[in-house]
Amino acid sequence: MNKTEKTIHEILKGLKDDSTILVGGFGLCGIPEVAIEAICRSGAKNLTVVSNNCGVDDWGLGLLLANKQIKKMISSYVGENKIFEQQLLSGQLEVELTPQGTLAERIRAGGAGIPAFYTATGVGTPVAEGKPVKVYEGKDYIEERAIVGDFTFVKAWKADKLGNLVYRKTARNFNPIMATAGKITIAEVEEIVEVGELNPDEIHTPAVFVQHVILGDSSKKRIEKRTTRTEGVAG
Amino acid sequence: MTSAKDRIVKRAVQEIENGMNVNLGIGIPTLVANEIPSDYQVLLQSENGLLGIGPYPLETEIDPDLINAGKETVTTVAGASFFDSADSFAMIRGGHIDIAILGGMEVSEQGDLANWMIPGKMVKGMGGAMDLVQGAKRVIVVMEHVSKYGESKIKKTCTLPLTGQKVVHRLITELAVFDFTEQGMVLMEVAPHVTVAEIREKTEANFTLSENLKIVT
Q: Domain-by-domain residue ranges, chain A?
C-alpha cells in the first residue's frame, strides 16, 4: 500500500460541487497550503467548509472565498478577513459560528461514529437557539450534532507512505481530529518517509484515517502575527 | 497615576497561585502573563494546543508552527506540551483549568457575561470563550468599569448576547472587585482613593458590601 501515488489534482477530481470539506489549521498555522491552492484551481463550488478560521484575504481559505467557492463556513472565529465580511453582508456567504470546543467535539464525534452529544457550552446564548436541551443533575445541556466531511484536508509534519502522521508543535491543532472525520482524508506533509521509519509510539494519526498523502511546500508557511522580544528582555 | 488597565492587571495577577494551570484571554488578560512572579511555576494554556506558553521569541527563534490563540508567535517553557484541539477543550470543558481570565463587554449582577458580539456590527465569533466560561474551575472577568461613553458595563441584565449565563466568579475593574454568590453580587474590594458611593454611582447592577470589604492592594 502506497498512499503517495496520486497527485492532488487527480484526487480532487472526486471533489464535487456542494461537498462538505474539513480543513485543518488554526489561523494560518498548520493549514494545508498546497491542497487549498489546488482546491482553488479545481473550481469546485458551493462548498461547505469546516475550519476554525477562514484564512486572510490573500492566503489560506481566503483564496477560496475570493474565488467564490464557499457557500457556507462553520467556524469559531472569522475576524481576520475583509472579503469574508463583504460576502457575508451581501448574503453570498452563510456562516455557522460554533464555540471552538464544540467545533472540536463535533468533529471528534463525527470521526468516532457518535451522531450527537450534550454540552453546557452555549447554554443561555444565541448558540443554544433551536437546540434540544437536556437536564443532567440539575444542570442544562444543549445537543450538538457531529460533523463528517466528504473530504478532509490536513497538514502534518511527517508521513510514511502508509499514511501514518506526525504533527509539529501548535501546527497540530484541529488536524488530528479532522483526519478522523473525513470520508476521504488527504494529508499534506513536509516530509514523506518509508514505512517503518516512524516510531509507532510517536504517531499522532494512525494510517487507517488517511487515504492520500501529498508533499507540501514548507516555504509557503506564513506567519499571521509576528511578535518578538529583544535579547535580555523576558516576556 | 497608573492607567486603568495597569491597575486591573496588577490586581488580576493576584488571582494566580503557584502551580496553577491558567488560560488568559486576548487583550488585558494577556498582559497579566508579564506580572506573574518569576519564581512561580504556572502553566499558561493556549486553546490552539499548548500548555506552557513562554515569552515571545527572539527574532532568531521565530517558528511559524508555534503560535498562541491570538495567532502571535511564542515560545514554550520547560515542561510544556502540545496537543490537538479535542484534548485542549477536554482540558477546558472537563474542569482541568484552574482559572480563566477573560475580557468583558458587559457583566450582569447574576454573573452573566457578554463579550463576543454586538448586534449590527460584524460578528467575528466566540472562539473558545463560551467553552472557557462553562468549563474553567474559576472564571475571572477583567474590564474597565464604564464604557468610553461613561456608561456602566456592570448591568442589572446584560443588553448584549451572552457568552455564558451565571458563569462569572469574580469581576475586577480599575475601581473594584466583585464576587458573584448565591446571595447576589458582592463588593469585595475597592481601589485606593475610591469611595463606595462612587462605585454605586458608576454601577447599574445592585450589589451588597462584603463584611470584609478591603482596599485593593
A: 4-116+146-215
- The CATH number of the domain holding residue B131 is 3.40.1080.10
Round to whole Å and give the CA distance between B193 and B175: 9
Q: Which residues of B are catalytic?
A: 47
Which positions ≥6 away from A137 have C-beta within 8 Å? none
In a domain, B34, yes or no: yes
Domain-located, residue B204: no
Q: Report the Cα B87 to chain-centroid distance in Å.
A: 22
Q: Which CATH architecture has domain A4-116+146-215?
A: 3-Layer(aba) Sandwich (3.40)
Q: Which cell is B131 given? A: 467553552
Counting the structural domains of chain B, the total is 1
Cβ neighbours of residue B153 closer than 8 Å, sequence gap 6 or more: B104, B105, B106, B107, B143, B144, B145, B146, B147
A136 at the B interface (CB within 8 A)? no
Instruction: Characterize the bridge pairing of strands A149-160 and B154-155.
Output: unpaired
Inter-chain CB proximity B122 and A85 less than 8 Å: yes
Tens of pLDDT along A124-161?
A: 999 999 999 999 999 999 999 999 999 999 999 999 99
pLDDT of residue B165: 97
A117, A121, A131, A152, best to mutate vs chain B, most B CBs in 10 Å: A121
d(CA A48, CA B26): 29
